[in-house]
Amino acid sequence: QSVLTQPPSVSAAPGQQVTISCSGSISNIGNNYVSWYQQLPGTAPKLLIYENNKRPSGIPDRFSGSKSGTSATLGITGLQTGDEADYYCGTWDSSLSARLFGGGTKLTVL
Amino acid sequence: EVQLVQSGAEVKKPGATVKISCKVSGYTFTDYYMHWVQQAPGKGLEWMGLVDPEDGEAYYAENFQGRVSITADTSTDTAYMELNSLRSEDTAVYYCAKTRGGLPTSLDYWGHGTLVTVSS
Among A52, B73, B85, B101, which residue's Cβ finds the most Cβ atoms within 10 Å? Predict the structure, then answer.
């Protein structure tokens, strides 16, 4: 059971948009930056969003992040079949002195 | 270009020890923390611990405390993760990943992963 809670799966049609939530607590999301990672099948995770809402170079602006209190959200617009992947939120927990990951959300583009 | 190149797949017997390496290039090794993450087949990401290559200080996840050792060799720009008392549940892909900045920051570059299979 992950300390950060994500829905196990989400789905939407190509061209549509989807949001993935990540819920934590004051010691993790509440007081630290949230990052998001995309893991395509058979590959290593890739940083998608850092510091709650910033995109690394090369990440399209179809991907966005936000944070409010102890929750964070990843948004993806203009869905493409290539976006089918597992998405993980991550943050630092100041009480545990530990890096945390959400349980992951499998995105299906129907 | 930043690269994290991990050692190859391993097959170990229960009770054995495995040591995986992660050789970096393209940045100053001592400027960023190095994390290790476990991913069991079909499962999510589980943080194992990290090392500060600058001084060798390591932090470990409670679930792996006592069984894992994470070190850094600044002479070869290589990080290591050693896991002992292996059991079947340790069969997984292990990733190294560097922080983007200080301790609590995101993991911006990841190794390709090392598959460890624990089987008698």
Answer: A52
Q: What is the DSSP letter of B42?
A: T
pLDDT one-digit tens code per residue, A5-59: 999 999 999 999 999 999 999 999 999 999 999 999 999 999 999 999 999 999 9
**Considering only CB atoms, which chain B residues are within 8 Å of A91?**
104
Mean pLDDT of chain A: 96
Tokens 């869905």 identify what position? A79
Cβ–Cβ contact B115 with A under 8 A: no
The reply to whether B51 touches chain A by the CB within 8 Å rule is no
Tokens of A76: 């993806």
- What is the distance in angstroms between the Cα of B15 and the nearest Cα belonging to chain A? 26
Per the CB < 8 Å rule, is A103 touching B44? yes
Determine the Cα–Cα distance for residues A15 and A94; give it in Å rounded to an integer. 39
pLDDT tier at A94, thresholds 50, 70, 90: very high
Give A-chain residues touching B37 at CB under 8 angstroms: 45, 101
* CA-to-CA dists, residue A27 to A7, A32, A36, A50, A70, angstroms: 21, 8, 18, 18, 9
**Residue written as token pair 């990052």:** A35
Q: Do A35 and B107 touch (CB under 8 A)?
A: yes
Question: Any chain A CB within 8 A of the CB of B53?
Answer: no
H-assigned helices in chain A: none
Residues B39-78: tens digit of each pLDDT? 999 999 999 999 999 999 999 999 998 999 999 999 999 9
